[in-house]
Amino acid sequence: MPNAMPRLPHPSFRDRVKRDPALRSPGERMAERKPVAAPEFRAKKERGERIVVVTAYDAPSAYYADQAGVDALLVGDSLAMVVLGYETTLPVTLDEMLHHVRAVVRARPKALVIADLPFLSYQVSPEEALRSAGRMLKDGGAGAVKVEGGAAIAPTVERLVDAGIPVMGHLGMTPQSVHRFGGWRVQPRQADAARALLADARALEAAGAFSLVLEMIPAEVARRVTAGLKIPTIGIGAGPECDGQVQVFHDLLGLCWTLAPKHAKRYADAGRVIRQALEEYAADVRAGTFPAEENTFHQRDLEDPDSWTG
Predict the structure, then answer these.
(1) How much of the chain, in percent, has pLDDT values that exceed 90?
(2) Which end of the chain is more exposed for a tag (fewer CB within 10 A), N or C?
């Protein structure tokens, strides 16, 4: 009888899962995911990979965004508007920002946590900026901070980077300067201002910023800035040719009670779902149908009133 060909062992499902990421559960994929650090942003740009950033302001938003596989969670000072109800970002304080940074970090995300430095927590002097940024990393657990401004803020960026603090820059429609711009307006609006913005971007890169947010600027300007930098650009209302995008959690999910900005795309109407659920809850309470038996606790030895009322 001719020698039979040896039978190769049939791969088990577990073995196939190890080789094929598509077969793994989201939890398994997240467990294997490496934490994202600031240098990974530049590496992604060099590999041509788009960077995904979303804001997060508490542990639940951080958890769900991280489970979705985003690269970074920005604890933005936008929380002043979408969480605390202010009309601008200016009133939020460093302590309030730190409170929310800690909440995001408690979700133990693999995504990089970037903390916004709020208005007047870094503009007075590089030394004050260092103290503020240091609190975000030391006390809050963030992995990086974000500041607004161009060449004028570059010495502060350099000071923070020299101290070991990764810094993300922010140009264009910088919300902390909303009163100087006269409202939420696209920036820059003239050719000279566009050239100045490119110079600001290069100054921030030279100061050591690891990435740069471009907010509400013409797509043509964003394309030029992106091509002229080695660090990645993260757009918000800056067109599709930035190296990545950032959006506000509440805008994406339909949780804002005001009109969403043009640059935001609503991927869900969570606000409507929440309102309907609460309307049903209120109706059940008023009808006496909640709590039901399955929501109620019992202690059998208390069923006889004579045993405990005396």
Answers:
(1) 81
(2) N
Domains (range + CATH), the chain: 16-269 (3.20.20.60), 274-307 (no CATH)
Q: How far is CA 23 from the centre of its chain?
A: 28
- Rounded CA separation 71/53 (Å): 6
Q: Is 159 exposed, middle or buried (0-12, 13-18, 19+ CB in 10 A)?
A: buried
Task: 175-182: list long-range contacts, CB under 8 Å, 24+ apart.
Answer: 175/77, 175/78, 175/88, 175/89, 175/148, 175/215, 176/77, 176/89, 176/90, 176/118, 176/119, 176/148, 177/148, 178/88, 178/89, 178/90
The one catalytic residue in 215, 293, 294, 303 is 215
On the question of pLDDT at 2 being above 60, the answer is no
Cis check: omega of the bond before 126, within 30 degrees of 0: no
Which value, to the nearest 10 degrees, does the dihedral of the CA atoms of residues 235, 240, 243, 249 take? 50
- pLDDT exceeds 80 at position 263: yes
Distances (CA, A) of 56 to 53, 60, 61, 73: 10, 9, 5, 6
How does residue 299 score in pLDDT terms, banded at 50, 70 and 90?
confident
DSSP tag of 52: E
| Residue entry with tokens 């240098």 | 39
The reply to whether 215 belongs to the active site is yes
Largest CA distance in the chain: 93
The rounded distance, in Å, linking the Cα atoms of 277 and 290 is 13
pLDDT digits (tens, 9 = 90+) for 199-235: 999 999 999 999 999 999 999 999 999 999 999 999 9
